[in-house]
Design brief:
This protein is α+β, with helices and mostly antiparallel strands. Among the domains are: 67-137; 141-205, Nucleotide Exchange Factor Grpe, Chain A, domain 2 (Roll). It contains five helices and six strands, in the order H-H-H-H-E-E-E-E-E-E-H. The strands form two sheets. The protein has a three-stranded antiparallel beta sheet with strand order 1-4-5. A three-stranded mixed beta sheet has the order 2-6-3, with no helix packed on it. Helix 3 packs antiparallel against helix 4. The N and C termini lie far apart (140 Å).
Length: 213
Amino acid sequence: MEKEQEQKQTVKNNSTDKKVENEVSNNENDLKSSNDRTEEPKEISPQEKIEELEDKLTRTFAEMENQRRRYEKEKDDAFEYGGFSFAKEALNLIDNLERSKQVLKNDEKLINTDALKKILEHLEIINKDLISIFNKNNIKPIDCLNKKLDPNFHQAMMEIDDDNKEPGTIVQEIQKGFTIKDRLLRPSLVAVSKKTQGNDKENQENKENLEDK
């Protein structure tokens, strides 16, 4: 009896083991099948390949064109404004000439002498030569006297009472400004006109009187 029960138990265990093995095998097969489906590359049609290549070519040509334009602009700027720093430093020559002229004019020992006259003539010749060289290289002085203050070209250093001119009119040039082609090389340092306080008060009173009438 016991032997028969042992045989039945053994058959049952074998059956269970086999069932488990089958389930494990089936799961492995399902997993492998799923991986195979995942790893399968998507097939691209010839038309899609052509469109992809055309897109890459378009992007490449666009980038090449942008680089060409940047190169052309840099080349033009280097040609036109390559001497910008040198030109700015060279303006000191004109400034020093102007200062020298003022010092000589204020020297009491030289006032009204022929020596002073000749020195000033020579300095003026040098100044004109420098301006001529600058003009040939598109470096030109800014004309500012009796014009309205323009912050793009002028820098106001002081105000001067002047009732004969509109407020903000340039009445004195302290330091000459220059441009190089279409760029500002150095602004003109200037003094601008303003109305006197007495006239401002008088104008205000006249305005109030007219309003009262």
